[in-house]
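Pipeline run #58 for the internal structure catalog. This entry was flagged by the ingest filter as a single-chain record with no existing model, so it goes straight to prediction. Upstream metadata was stripped on purpose; only the residue string is passed forward. Reviewer on rotation: M.T. Logging verbosity set to normal.
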Amino acid sequence: KILKQKYSTSESSLTVQDIYIILKKDLFLEVYTQYFTCFTNYVVVQGFDRAAKQTSGYWKTNKKMLKQLLAPSVSEPTISITLHTMLHESIKSQVQQYALILTRLNERAEEISEKNLVSDALNLYVKLQNFISQSLDEASLTKILWGSLGSKLV
């Protein structure tokens, strides 16, 4: 709404500094980094929790009954995929779109100051993309590691 008003008036023009993903780039980085750190910590802790349950004395004495109770149901993979999509695929896609927009804007920026501003924001979003991918990969591998260790400890 504000962009439309500002853009439609002939007296003032839209500048690079008016674009929210550039203006608040540090806030975006901080919030997305915190979110993915919490998400990946949860994934890792969940894997550890599963391994710890398998090695506990109660688990060992009631293993058969508990395995039946905890056996994955048919809908569990669907739930897992849905949660995966909801909790971080949409955010990864959004960050990717921001980077794409900034890439296009960087190609069209004419003034050096504008180009520097856009380039700085673009670099930040590329770093954020790398952080997201790396943290999700590490969490997934750690969860797999916990699962393999849990079966060896039983």
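catalog note: The first helix runs from residue 2 to 8.
catalog note: The two ends are 61 Å apart (CA to CA).
status: ready for reviewer M.T.
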